[in-house]
């Protein structure tokens, strides 16, 4: 290898660090505020009915604007969009940390979600066009998948530590130095790339898909408080389905569609989107149930709860980095994804063995290890094939599509599982009374019931992926020349 190629290789791997750092910040911010909610609510005088919007405002803006963010990255430059997203996210995080009213904090969370919608697709598309050799691509996506899978658990740990030892505001301030470091590294190491030719924004597509995703996320967010059968839930969900159906029709007829139908028609890519969505349902459902189980049933402190998730994090890293990265260039994708989904389902089913008195090592630890090993087998493969083989001009929107699957699935899945858990808990208490011991047992009963449903969804999804994702094992052929960036 010539000195020039060796230097370019080192720059790529250094750039990966800063791209992955940006992704970690995005995923971390989805959970870091959760543990701080009681302190935050108390300090700002937020009502119980309004507190959910601290989480929902972020997910609503993030999930609904992702496809638009991906197309903006393709048209205006992925490096430029990456840097704007990082700096905007840092400013929004600083605003949220300094907020002294509920309204200002809510505005900051919306801004965070909007800038994350720019940042997420641009980061993944930069990874896609930077690593084109199959062996390097496997290692790079192993890192990316591991970061995505463990980011939520790291967020819980960081949220507990920051809330216990500093203040809830640091759960927002922590993103500022991360974003600035990633922006400095990305500015120095990343080359610009964007779609060539004259770009025309698909305005009808933008309006339809953004409106449809907003309606879906909003309707889902209301289900916990209003019930799935309420007009406030069914109305937005129906509107979301209609708008997204209209979006699909429009995209087949416009000359430069926002989401080209060929991207989602590919079976391997469709299987990858489904796999990411199912994995997020399992992981975020586990984060929710285990957090409440450890704090409410077992009496753990926030920081101790965060530490309890560390073995899951280690399992993801070992699985993604030690196993999946080595096998990804050699085997068909479903050979890794289907067993991974089965392991995540087993982790959720392990909840059925737990009682209120079950020791940590026999309950949460074993469940977390199964979940971690399974997620580490799914995420690198799914993210790789979600962007594999796309034209360079579509890298941003392809990355946005898999991010959208991740975000929408985690939002809908978490609310769905929480609704199932709440219903099972209420039924148990109605049958057994309302003593403190019964309340703890009832909460566990809710988690077990929802975990069983999650396992059923995951196993059904595994069967679908086994049939749908029929991509063969990668061909071993000389690597194509790396993607040539378009000058800014």
From TrEMBL:
Domain Major facilitator superfamily (MFS) profile per the UniProt entry, residue ranges: 15-473
Pfam families per UniProt: MFS_1
Keyword hit for Hydrolase: no
Subcellular location: Cell membrane
Leader sequence residues: none
GO terms under cellular component: plasma membrane
Protein origin, superkingdom: Bacteria
InterPro entries: MFS, MFS_dom, MFS_trans_sf
Keywords: Antibiotic resistance, Cell membrane, Membrane, Transmembrane, Transmembrane helix, Transport
UniProt keyword Transmembrane present: yes
Membrane-protein topology: Multi-pass membrane protein
Name of protein: Putative multidrug resistance protein MdtD
UniProt gene name: mdtD_2
């Amino acid at each position: 290898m010539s000195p020039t190629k060796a230097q370019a290789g080192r720059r790529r791997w250094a750039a990966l660090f800063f791209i992955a750092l940006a992704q970690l910040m995005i995923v971390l911010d989805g959970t870091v505020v959760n543990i701080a909610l009681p302190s935050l609510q108390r300090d700002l005088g937020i009502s119980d009915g309004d507190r959910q919007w601290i989480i929902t405002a972020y997910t609503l803006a993030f999930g609904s604007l992702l496809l638009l963010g991906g197309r903006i990255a393709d048209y205006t430059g992925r490096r430029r969009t990456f840097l704007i997203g990082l700096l905007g996210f840092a400013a929004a995080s600083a605003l949220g940390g300094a907020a002294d009213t509920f309204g200002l904090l809510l505005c900051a969370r919306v801004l965070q979600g909007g800038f994350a919608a720019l940042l997420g697709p641009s980061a993944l598309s930069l990874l896609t066009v930077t690593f084109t050799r199959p062996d390097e691509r496997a290692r790079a996506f192993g890192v990316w998948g591991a970061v995505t899978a463990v980011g939520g658990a790291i967020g819980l740990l960081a949220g507990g530590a920051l809330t216990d030892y500093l203040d809830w505001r640091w759960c927002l301030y922590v993103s500022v130095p991360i974003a600035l470091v990633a922006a400095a590294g990305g500015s120095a190491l990343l080359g610009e790339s964007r779609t060539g030719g004259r770009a025309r924004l698909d305005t009808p597509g933008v309006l339809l898909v953004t409106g449809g995703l907003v309606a879906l996320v909003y309707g889902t967010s209301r289900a916990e408080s209003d019930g799935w059968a309420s007009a406030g839930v069914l109305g937005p969900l129906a509107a979301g389905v209609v708008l997204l159906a209209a979006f699909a029709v429009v995209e087949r007829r416009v000359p430069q569609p926002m989401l080209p139908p060929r991207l989602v028609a590919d079976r391997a890519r469709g299987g990858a989107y489904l796999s990411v969505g199912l994995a997020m349902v399992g992981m975020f459902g586990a984060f929710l149930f285990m957090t409440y189980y450890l704090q409410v049933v077992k009496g753990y402190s926030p920081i101790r709860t965060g530490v309890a998730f560390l073995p899951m994090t280690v399992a993801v890293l070992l699985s993604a980095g030690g196993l999946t990265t080595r096998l990804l260039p050699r085997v068909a994708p479903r050979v890794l994804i289907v067993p991974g989904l089965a392991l995540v389902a087993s982790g959720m089913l392990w909840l059925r063995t737990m009682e209120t008195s079950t020791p940590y090592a026999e309950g949460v630890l074993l469940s977390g290890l199964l979940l971690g090993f399974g997620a580490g087998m799914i995420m690198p493969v799914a993210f790789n094939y979600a962007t594999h083989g796309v034209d360079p001009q579509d890298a941003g929107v392809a990355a946005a599509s898999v991010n959208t699957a991740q975000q929408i699935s985690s939002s809908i899945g978490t609310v769905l599982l929480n609704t199932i858990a709440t219903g099972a808990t209420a039924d148990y208490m109605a049958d057994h009374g309302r003593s403190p011991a019964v309340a703890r047992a009832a909460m566990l009963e809710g988690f077990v019931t929802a975990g069983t449903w999650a396992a059923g969804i995951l196993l059904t999804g595994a069967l679908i992926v086994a049939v749908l994702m029929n991509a063969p094992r990668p061909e071993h052929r000389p690597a194509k020349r790396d993607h040539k960036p378009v000058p800014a």
